[in-house]
Amino acid sequence: MTEVAAPDRPAPPPASGPSRPDAGLEYAFGAPPDVSTWIEVAPGVRWVRMRLPFALDHINLWLLAGPDGWTHVDCGIADDATRAAWEPLLAVHTPVVRVVATHHHPDHVGLAGWLVERAGGVPLWMTEGEYLTAHAILAEQPGYAPEPMAALFLRHGLTPARAEAGRERRGGYGRIVGPLPPAFARLMDGDAVRLGHHNWEVIAGFGHCPEHAALYCQALGVLISGDMLLPRISTNVSVWPVEPEADPVGRFLRSLQRYRVLPPDTLVLPSHGLPFRGIATRIDTLEAHHAERFAELLAALDTPKSAADVLPVLFRRTLDAHQLVFAMGEAIGHLNHLHQRGDATRVEGPDGVLRFVAR
Ligand SMILES: [Zn+2]
After folding, report:
1. What is the total count of domains within the chain?
2. What would the mean pLDDT of 29-46 be, rounded to a whole number?
3. Domain range spanning residue 271?
4. CATH classification of the domain holding 81
5. Is residue 198 domain-resident?
6. What's the half-sphere exposure (Cβ side, CA atoms, 13 Å) at 147?
7. Looking at residues 137-143, what average pLDDT do you find?
8. What pLDDT, on the 0 to 100 scale, is given for residue 254?
9. Which residues lie below 8 Å from residue 353, measured CB to CB, with a gap of 6+?
């Protein structure tokens, strides 16, 4: 639910045609598992899929077998359908020894508290940035509450009526994220953690969220990439009100270099879409995609424009209220990047709206 670009659908392998976002990728499995079933994608690594009631209609989760029990990586949202889909899986994959959440977005952490409790209070492993952010949003702390979102959008040129979309969106987090445990086990960049039968390296990533954790297992040749590397969707990289000057696009592009150096035959397990090989090819495509957007944006900034003004440049279709939140966040992010790298200047109008113009 965190991406607004082309909704991801199970792709028919093999990919073909240079215009496809997944051109050149090799899909290891033709179709995803049905709900409440699994596919073993590597020894002791099982792929489970849960439905999402959004344009992005699914999330992939991973179950790792170990000597003492199972490790869950990501959880699904906290709704009755997802809890029901978990039941037959929990009956087989028992005991659960820990729950790992790659980041704080609802499709990943929503049911973490429920799964932890069902397993008798096992630890929840997350980075500190993600754990604290989840709590801050649930508690509607200053900067994470609905009001600052509307204010940010007004400052970037949205009309008051459309800026209200932000208010509605933020209030929705607690409806699909259950209560979280009051303690966690901290994952940090570079940690080597024992999950299942193998060691996994934590690779922190930025731009999509404060401190995303991807997991790489050299022995298995597997990368659990979370939302940082997806085969077809361009990961959402948004500015949020708590950090209005952020450059999430720059952070994301820099983070990708951490995956580029992994062995070319690494099997990537993404949160959305199908497992694939071809990390470098996918990163090339993403870099080209963002370079193209920056060029289009700069061309449009021949006169001062706000983030709201450039929405039609970046998104060539009608946006519903849900998509508008992510689209505005992305538009502000791209403008901040051009501003901070010196390609655009920023002016504040008498109406209080921030506008950007190419140098
Ligand atoms: Zn996400």
Report:
1. 1
2. 96
3. 26-301
4. 3.60.15.10
5. yes
6. 4
7. 93
8. 98
9. 154, 155, 156, 157, 306
